[in-house]
């Protein structure tokens, strides 16, 4: 059922989405250009192009270490926070229990907190407890801030979850774990996926918490920040372009493989 | 056997008062379920015997679904005791009970296909996929779903198709006790008949206990060993279909099984008298009924009395209206201030506007206490 | 018989005995423990600093209200930083809701098989640090940058002067926080059953009515959580002002940063941070309680 | 124990580069981690929060070691005998006992000096000639004609000095209320007139693009990358005269100290010696990012490693006279008060 | 009037070909709806006349819901034309049609109370709150919901309560044409009766057009002006209840209205003969029926023939089984290879095991074409 008004709305929404997407990519494109110019400073139209900064970035051992640290932290944070937040979201939006109202409030507090202050305060505690700051302490710091965010994101979908489905599964003899795997997880999957994405991105891009809690294990955002403030080179935007491209390759590649697998399974 | 049902919650010594002869599989003692202020189920005492087929009927909102949810372990009773083969199971969760409920809301898994929904309980118990599929297809045949639906998205099925998937899923689980909450309500007459038969066969062959909510009185009558009638959270009567039909515990039960003709009566020196003073002939004096009572005559026992024929009770009137009920007709007969209902086969000699005599035999009158 | 049953019921261990932990409490366990260990301690530390002697490092060893006195001194203009940050946060929330809603709606209802691809297009750039993305905008807007340079190359007199203004800061915030509105909102809108929209339309409701009465309330968890996240992030924003705004506005996050760094006045920074938390949580929780999700969604 | 093979350095940009660290890593077979931060106080925060147990070396600007870290017990003295001789090969002004390397009482050697430079402001000489800039000095930033054409580097400690200088007040002394009032008014005016406040990358880009013609706070450290890129029209300027006993500019000297780490790596002192070597010192001067003179240029072996372009990038031609016209960065006695006033002034921008 | 239904889609000049005598409110021409490969509705042509009450019946999955969804504007037809009072409305959205559908799935707004659900269409047309509430309470009375439910969370209502809220909401909207998709399926007998009456009254008083899907044949028969029968996406017959019952278009329709006795017959020189060669007496020769046909005898026209009584067709057999249908009994009579069904009032003289003669009159036989 489509009226003319609906067709117009549909068109307007398409155009709007395309426009916003264009804006989303505009600075990325500017960065890509900057990363390919010869000089450090950017003038448009670009006079001389050069692959120098890409080469330097790719061959830099330091950046390899930074990528490694950032990935390690982000992957662990993603896994742990999705696990915690999944149950956290059930407690937030699914179950009715005594402490729920209070819980719904405390869980918000860490995200209300300015991150640099949280990072510094955590650093004070790690040291008071005799824990040497390292990527592991950064993981904990990230979790304190990211788990509540991911909990909220997953909770959105939990609000739409029909509890009678779990009841029915239970009634059919399924164990808690089986229900989780076969009913709850697949139905909440979009929320979990979004939550995981949030977790990864928030950790991967985090500067203020890592600044204080990663100890000697520096991360990409810390490096980028110091480069921006003192010692800027076009390696900064070059690294940005590479990140976008790798993410695109990974996500699209993953999506493609997923699609092929699904198709094959459907055929089988 | 009609169980005398007391509707007050039993406070002390709850279990001693109801010692059943044959060991019941499920026993409810003083079971109440309260939502906020409101008691959805209000002091139910009943035994379900092993292998029995019990139907539960009652008006919308009378607590049938709530009762079944408690039996299945979806909800704990606010008060009272539920025992399974003698063990208290108030707090035993659904997956630890050998029972299964076909939900009124169906509760199908929206992300699974028809086949996957049906196979769910089989997957739970780790049946190999090939075997699972074979069983699912078998069950689909049983509920008359075409084989091609095996891979169909369950949310794309029609209302009746969904209902059959829910049924098949419960059969796949195959527990000792099955609860059905209006399982055939969305099916057409023929399919309903066919599945009623399947259900009945399954019940007979398996020896399982079935508790079955329905709004179809025919279903309740045809299929059950006993029928329970609920009203406002209370189980007001439970007994064989015959008992419920012919010896309703009260006016509510009598009327619930269809529109009836009823007369407030008082026993005077010269026998039962209607409110308007007319003497009535009723068979025997039922026990436990006070001097004030109600006499019920069902439309199908009320009949047109050919002129001059003998009948225990007769009323003169005019046919005011007639309806087709399919194979039968219903007539509204105007007499005095009142309208009486008479049901008769199609093709009778009477029609609207005719002056007729209607009446009933003493043996067909039902006397109830309120 | 009563005795018999009670006796039997003890022999069945299907009935869970002992302390009954509600599923909600159990599910909240990991998060509560994490926050108990990882957040309570820093919170206490910051609180202790907030009440410590100004410019000292004597947390837990001194107690004074001096830091708050300084902040609430009428001569102190730090309130303007609070005001700016809250105003930016509010503007960000409102504008992003308007910007993201059509896209979220499109992702769920219009784009069909392209929806996945379109939403992933919004994701790729997020792998780049926000500083770098913001700097990309500097390269776009700056004199002889992409916009100005391109316009000049096309014979125009050059681009408009947008950089280093309060408006540029808002623009940057909209840019950086868009995903935090868009994705929760998309999840929320996906929760509205199509059936209900059909039913509302069938009952004569127009677009707006359907939106207000059905889609909006049912998508509320997603929208509210998107708003909450963008509000909190907006209130703590700093990079947008530093990179795009040329610090044409000082946000409260920057004041806190200065207190901890250049001023080496941790007690003042802690007091500011605590006040920010109180303001942000006060505002957010007031709004949230007015729009109680549980109530909106008929859970209670 | 067991830290023979690891070294952790908290430093300004440069020491964390591969060019500097890799040869040390391979020669010692050690794991060296270096983190570069972009302001002194944040580094001090890390140590204060307890990271003294992590770091072995800390590299900050001159007064912090002597006046803050040593009194707070965050760093520990170097073996004097081993390190004092290095000062003798440095540029003349670093001759031992070098004030900023010593404790207040002059007894302990607190760190080694290496990079340094003048740090007043930067101009685009195409727009404001070097001569005009040196002549007019800080008054440029009070010139209504230049309002909206200058930027300010985001470096609040340093900006406090700058504002004092614009106001014609010596920053490194106690100030009267009247001076503070003048400071405050000047700050308001200077910040109000600024087109932007930003980091080095932004300001250099803005200078190159033509968004601004000059910026307050900055020197060889900040402008050298742009000069190295060929923008020789951009230049750090030290005014000819000014309020600090006649001196017109301010300079900085980095001091690298050993952290008061209970388990200090033996490589800490090794590294300090390593960077004194002429080749390494040159590398430090021209590590990626920013380019700076180093004290080791006093040693001819080191100096000869600098190419003409490199010397041009760090304005070697005028370095000596500019340093001579500069007072050394020091602690401002009423710094907190001035910072508060300046922060308030910044808020009036919005 | 039984409409001859052609099931092929009409390609060219679609609207000119079917000019109705009485102006129909809704007209469907060659309407098809395809899901993937599958045609859920497959070439339906039908007119609904102004003020008519039409019931649609048909097996589960036959396309009833899909048909109604297209009429209400929830779904566009894949092929064919839908006109409203002569205007093509294929692409007119639901809110622009003077129609309203009571969903099979109810589609209640879960975030609204019972009252708010019912008031929704009133809010749409900006009725003041006080008036709205008064109207909602009135409608709640009509569907027998207690006033106290006004503020109740609709998701906390029982199945039947929800169904009534959905009904009340549609009544509140009060459009010219109302579509009902099994609106009373979750209600008990009494309530169903009461609401059927309300519906019927509403229909009569308002003069609106009702299209009503039901699985209750009784409902279809009692309430409708015409009954349409769907099968596999096609409307196989539409006519008055009487026509459908007494002159089913084919065996499918005949059997759909209940279990029947059927005989494959061929017309020989000496009249109709059953497959087993036995001569059969059937009344008249129906038109349009070839020499091979099926004779249908409903269980309620099949009867026990007292010894010696005359009947057109008689069969000897033994009672094999008997079921109670409430007020009536159904008997399975074994004769030869087959089982025949006989329905008779309760309290007849026969019972299982008895040898009986069953038979039917020529006038009661129904002859259909396949
Ligand atoms: N969205 C869909 N996608 C695929 N198939 C569908 C879809 N909707 C309905 N169908 C199929 O179309 C057929 C008709 O469905 P419809 O809901 O109209 O049946 P119905 O006559 O209302 O049945 P019921 O009495 O069971 O409600 C069914 O076989 C159903 O499975
Ligand atoms: N969660 C709940 N909160 C409040 N009231 C409830 C809840 N669940 C059920 N009720 C009320 O309890 C009563 C019994 O509900 P129940 O679902 O058991 O009825 P039912 O007999 O199954 O009715 P139906 O035949 O309509 O399905 C109803 O009045 C209903 O409104
Ligand atoms: N943010 C830079 C301000 C201070 C200048 N010092 C440069 C120092 C390099 N050690
Ligand atoms: Mg129910
Ligand atoms: Mg249907």
TrEMBL record, chain A:
Would you tell me the protein name for this molecule? Spermidine/putrescine transport system permease protein
Q: Give TM segment ranges.
A: 12-36, 71-95, 107-126, 138-162, 183-204, 238-261
What protein family is recorded? Belongs to the binding-protein-dependent transport system permease family. CysTW subfamily.
Identify its membrane topology class. Answer: Multi-pass membrane protein
**Where does it localize?**
Cell membrane
Recorded hits in Pfam families, A to Z, give: BPD_transp_1
- Xref: Gene3D superfamilies: MetI-like (1.10.3720.10)
Superkingdom of source: Bacteria
Instruction: Please name the PANTHER family in this protein's record.
Output: PUTRESCINE TRANSPORT SYSTEM PERMEASE PROTEIN POTI (PTHR43848:SF2)
ABC transmembrane type-1 domain ranges (all copies): 67-254
Chief location of this protein within or outside the cell: membrane
Key words of the record: Cell membrane, Membrane, Transmembrane, Transmembrane helix, Transport
**Annotated Gene Ontology cellular component terms:** plasma membrane
- The scientific name of the source species is Allorhizobium borbori
Q: Which GO terms describe its biological process?
A: transmembrane transport
UniProtKB/TrEMBL annotation, chains B, E:
A GO CC term assigned to this protein in UniProt: ATP-binding cassette (ABC) transporter complex
Q: Which PROSITE patterns match?
A: ABC_TRANSPORTER_1 (PS00211), ABC_TRANSPORTER_2 (PS50893)
Which segments does the entry list as coiled coil? none
Name a Pfam family for this protein: TOBE_2
Q: Any idea where the ABC transporter domain is?
A: 26-257
Sorted alphabetically, the keyword list is: ATP-binding, Nucleotide-binding, Transport
Q: Which GO terms describe its biological process?
A: quaternary ammonium group transport
Q: Which GO terms describe its molecular function?
A: ATP binding; ATP hydrolysis activity; transmembrane transporter activity
Which family is annotated?
Answer: Belongs to the ABC transporter superfamily.
- Please state what the protein is called: Spermidine/putrescine transport system ATP-binding protein
Source organism per UniProt: Allorhizobium borbori
Automatic annotation (TrEMBL), chain C:
Which Gene3D superfamilies does the record cross-reference, listed alphabetically?
MetI-like (1.10.3720.10)
Query: Which keywords label this protein?
Result: Cell membrane, Membrane, Transmembrane, Transmembrane helix, Transport
Q: Name one Pfam family in it.
A: BPD_transp_1
- What InterPro entries does the annotation carry? MetI-like, MetI-like_sf
| Cell compartments where the protein resides | Cell membrane
Q: Does the keyword Coiled coil apply?
A: no
Gene Ontology BP terms: transmembrane transport
GO CC terms, sorted: plasma membrane
Where is the chain membrane-spanning? 31-52, 82-103, 168-193, 214-239, 271-291
- The chain positions of domain ABC transmembrane type-1 read 82-289
Its membrane topology is listed as: Multi-pass membrane protein
The answer to whether the entry has keyword Iron is no
The entry's family comment says: Belongs to the binding-protein-dependent transport system permease family. CysTW subfamily.
The protein's name is Spermidine/putrescine transport system permease protein
Source organism per UniProt? Allorhizobium borbori
* Higher taxonomy: Bacteria, Pseudomonadati, Pseudomonadota, Alphaproteobacteria, Hyphomicrobiales
